[in-house]
Each structure stands twice: as C-alpha cells, then as structure tokens.
C-alpha cells in the first residue's frame, strides 16, 4: 500500500480538554504543581502529562510532534518553541562531531608514533 500522509494524520484521534474534536491549544508558558513531589518527579522525567515550562514542552507541541511524525511516517518528531530552540541541538551536534574528529585524529597520530 502506498504511503499516504493524509491517512496517517486522520488515524490520530485526540479529544480536546473539554470534549472538543481537536485538542485544546495550550498558550501557557508556566505550569503549577499540586505538590512538591509531583514537581520533583516531573523535573526528573518520571511523570507523564505534567509540564514544566514552555521551553521544554507543551501539550500543543506534543500533539503537533505526534501529528508530524504520523505524516512523515517516523517514530517521533521534535517541535521547538523558537528558532533558537530548533537550531541549538544542531549546533551542539556539530560541536560534538568536531571534538570527536579531533580526538580521532589525535588517537591516529599516537598510533602512528608507536
């Protein structure tokens, strides 16, 4: 069967916070916690459905990421809240790769000496 992104996006079924057909749009940048333990668990990544700050993630970003992943036929998609948030992981990847190449060159030089 031919890959059809429209079929994949139609298969996603989200219901809004108040029973709507579409998920509710979250325009909050900060979130509250009922207890300190819940906040600690969220900071450690052990709590699903709780959000820290919009820079990390929001319900809207998660819905959009899942929809994009379904449309592209991938396991996951990452949505950033700003251009800087989107480019920073790529920058870090470049820096890490440069460091890895440098270390590999140094290792090869040491091997050639012996």
Q: What's the topology here?
A:
Elements: H1 5-11, H2 36-43, H3 59-72, H4 83-113
Short description, anyone?
It contains 4 helices and no strands. It is an all-alpha fold and 114 residues long. The chain folds into 2 domains: 1-81, no CATH class; 83-114.
Provide a descriptive summary of the structure in words.
This protein is mainly alpha-helical and 114 residues long. It folds into two domains: 81 residues, no CATH class; 32 residues. It contains four helices and no strands. Helix 1 packs antiparallel against helix 3. It starts with a helix and ends with a helix. The model has no long low-confidence stretch (mean pLDDT 77).
Task: Label this structure with key terms.
single chain, 114 residues, mainly alpha, extended
| Strand segment tally | 0
Low-confidence stretches: none
Number of helices: 4
Number of domains: 2
Instruction: Note the beta-strand portion.
Output: under 5%
- SSE string, helices as H and strands as E: HHHH
């Amino acid at each position: 069967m031919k890959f059809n992104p429209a079929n994949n996006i139609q298969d996603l079924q989200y219901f809004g916070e108040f029973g709507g057909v579409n998920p509710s749009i979250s325009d909050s940048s900060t979130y509250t916690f009922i207890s300190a333990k819940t906040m600690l668990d969220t900071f450690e990544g052990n709590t699903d459905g709780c959000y820290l700050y919009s820079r990390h993630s929001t319900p809207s970003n998660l819905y959009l990421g899942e929809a994009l992943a379904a449309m592209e036929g991938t396991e996951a998609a990452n949505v950033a809240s700003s251009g800087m948030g989107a480019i920073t992981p790529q920058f870090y990847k470049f820096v890490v790769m440069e460091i890895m190449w440098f270390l590999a060159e140094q290792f090869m030089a040491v091997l050639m000496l012996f």
